[in-house]
Structures are given as structure tokens and as C-alpha cells.
Amino acid sequence: MHLKVKSKYEYDDQLLTIDLIGQLSSVTVEQFDQALTENKLTSVRFIVLNLKGLDYISSAGFRAIFQITKLMQARGGEVKVANRQPQVKKVFEIIQALPTMQFFADDVEMDAYLTKIQTELQSSHSLSTHDVI
């Protein structure tokens, strides 16, 4: 598993765009956290997480995004997520539904389920894009 993080400031450092490429999981979440720590967030009002290159996210990755969102909201800022791949979008939908239906024994079980869903969606997405004649 790997994760590449690219950061770009705009508008007098008020907007920070972060491109995530690869996988955001328990193995790579420290890289994401470190990238946030290395960026000067004091003047940042808006963070855009560009997930176009993110092909996998686990519950740990989702938690990291949720934590930075809470931090920015407490400071009066915002975090927006853009360009989610279908399998990553599905994880966001599943996680957002969980508070009303907790049915996973632990993070390992939940990550196994999320991996299965993302793998299936990636397979069907690549088949549908290559089936066009």
C-alpha cells in the first residue's frame, strides 16, 4: 500500500488543495497526518481534498478526513472533498449510514467489508469502461 500527498496553496494561503493518490488506510494514514502537520494551517480557511487519484480508503482513512474536518470547523474553516472514485464514494455513503446501524464487530471487520465493496466496484467500473466498442 502506498499514498502520495501533494499540497498546493492559493489565495494568500487561505485555500489548501491536497491531492491524495494511492490508498488511505491504517498503513498510510500517518503520511496523511504528517502532510497536514507539515502544512501551515494557521491561515488556511478552506481545504479541498482531491481524491481523484485515491483508489482505496479504509475506516482509518475516513477517520483522518473526519478529524481534519472537525478541526477546521472548530476554527471556522471548511473541508470539501472532490473527485471521489466510485468505490471511495461508496465508502463515504456506507460510513455516513453507520450511526443508525452499527453492525461491525470491530475495525478489522468493517475494513474487510469496505475492501470487498471497493474491489467489486473497481472491477465493475473498469469492465464497463473497457466494454465500449
Short précis:
The chain is of the alpha/beta class.
What does the model show?
This protein is α/β, with parallel strands linked by helices. It has a single domain, classed as Transcription Regulator spoIIAA. It is built from four helices and four strands. A four-stranded mixed β-sheet has the order 1-2-3-4. Helix 1 links the parallel strand 2 and strand 3. Helix 3 packs antiparallel against helix 4. The longest helix has 24 residues. The chain is globular. The C terminus is likely disordered.
Element layout with pairings:
Blueprint lengths: L2 E8 L4 E10 L4 H10 L7 E12 L1 H16 L3 E5 L3 H12 L9 H24 L3
Parallel strand pairs: 2-3, 3-4
Antiparallel strand pairs: 1-2
pLDDT < 50 runs, ≥5 residues:
127-133
Give the overall silhouette.
Answer: globular
What's the overall average pLDDT, rounded?
83
The CATH architecture term is 2-Layer Sandwich
Number of strands: 4
Widest sheet, order of strands: 1-2-3-4
Structural class: alpha/beta
Please write the string of helix (H) and strand (E) elements. EEHEHEHH
Look at the structure and name the CATH superfamily: STAS domain
Total number of distinct structural domains: 1
Contiguous helical run count:
4
Work out the strand percent.
25-35%
Describe the biggest sheet?
A: 4 strands, mixed
The CATH topology turns out to be: Transcription Regulator spoIIAA
- Helix percent reads 40-55%
What would CATH call the class?
Answer: Alpha Beta
How far apart the termini lie comes to 33 Å
